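[recover] target loaded
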């Protein structure tokens, strides 16, 4: 990458725009740089590769590189959106590492932030509920998710989102794990399992938010986890269900549910 920048007259200015996104196990720093303003074809030729959609890239790169890409996307977007102070309208300045921006006119320091989002796998004890939005790739189903509103805790958000999106009342829930996710902006995904009553499991879907939501049994989930997206299309043009890949926290939730169900039936 450095050899590409060195061909530009303003190479030093480009390097100053880079941000620190982490360090390797060997303590080598990793930096990210937005090259969107440069000639895309020239970069592809120089590096003998091609650009791809970041959403797709996060699911195919090495497990160690995926978090770096997510951090790079979020931090570079944040810097692009905070070039001016919201109080004075004056330009802000990035520090060397890219961990903050400062307005010297007002003395205000801005730090990157993440928005809390709950992602919830709902179960009625023997089935789990997955849904899809119209924007999803054909055949892909995942767990319910939604942003935390101001003043809400995680439990309140889970109950509200499940009620709003599928019309079900959560009886109990438990925390699973968390994951940083760069879409639609920098988000902290808080993964939970939620239980609803088996006698009150009729779905009332919010059609403005979702395209489809339904219950899946254990066997169908196990088969879906094995299925690749490209192999889900059938001869009649319909698509068999498939689920987010292992780098996504939704995949972890689904795996945990399978393990729990398998242990109960063993």
């Amino acid at each position: 990458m450095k050899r590409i920048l060195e061909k530009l007259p303003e190479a030093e200015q480009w390097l100053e725009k880079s941000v620190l996104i982490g360090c390797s196990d060997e303590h080598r720093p990793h930096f990210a740089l937005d090259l969107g303003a440069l000639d895309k074809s020239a970069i592809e030729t120089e590096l003998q590769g091609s650009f791809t959609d970041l959403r797709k890239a996060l699911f195919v790169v090495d497990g160690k590189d995926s978090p770096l890409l997510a951090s790079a996307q979020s931090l570079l977007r944040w810097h692009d959106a905070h070039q001016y102070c919201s109080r004075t309208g004056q330009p802000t300045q990035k520090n060397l590492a890219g961990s903050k921006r400062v307005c010297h006119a007002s003395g205000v320091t801005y730090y990157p932030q993440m928005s809390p989002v709950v992602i919830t796998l709902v179960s009625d004890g023997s089935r789990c509920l997955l849904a899809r939005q119209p924007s999803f790739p054909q055949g892909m189903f995942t767990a319910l998710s939604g942003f935390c509103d101001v003043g809400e805790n995680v439990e309140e958000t889970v109950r509200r989102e499940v009620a709003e999106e599928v019309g079900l009342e959560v009886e109990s829930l438990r925390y699973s794990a968390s994951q940083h996710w760069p879409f639609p902006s920098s988000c902290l995904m808080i993964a939970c399992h939620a239980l609803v009553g088996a006698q009150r499991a009729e779905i009332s879907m919010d059609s403005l938010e979702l395209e489809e939501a339904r219950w899946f049994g254990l066997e169908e989930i196990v088969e879906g986890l094995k299925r690749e997206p490209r192999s889900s299309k059938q001869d009649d043009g319909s698509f068999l269900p498939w689920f987010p890949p292992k780098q996504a926290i939704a995949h972890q939730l689904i795996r945990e549910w399978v393990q729990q169900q398998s242990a109960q039936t063993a």
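[recover] notes: The radius of gyration is 22 Å.
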